[in-house]
Amino acid sequence: MIVAFSVSPSAAAPDGSVSEAVARAVKVVRDSGLPNSTSSMFTEIEGEWDEVMAVVKEAVAAAGEGSARVGLVLKADIRPGHDTGQLTAKVERVEAHLRNA
User: Does this model's pTM top 0.85?
Assistant: First the structure.
């Protein structure tokens, strides 16, 4: 499965930035050893249901350190039999179609 998620704690820097809290969450994901990717809006992580959800839970906790509330947006692509390699393969298939268009 691939999970795309975004975390946002209620306590932000005076300028509204949540980058420090998000960096804590991204570090949890990267330290997990699971395939992952981070963009300006979401972090994607790939693996088995239980391992991915455990990492998301830990990332939410890390982002929420010092905050009374954390918002979580989560989208999952659950495709039995395709638990690995899809994080990049899905993008490669789209790019191949674009090259052939």
Answer: yes
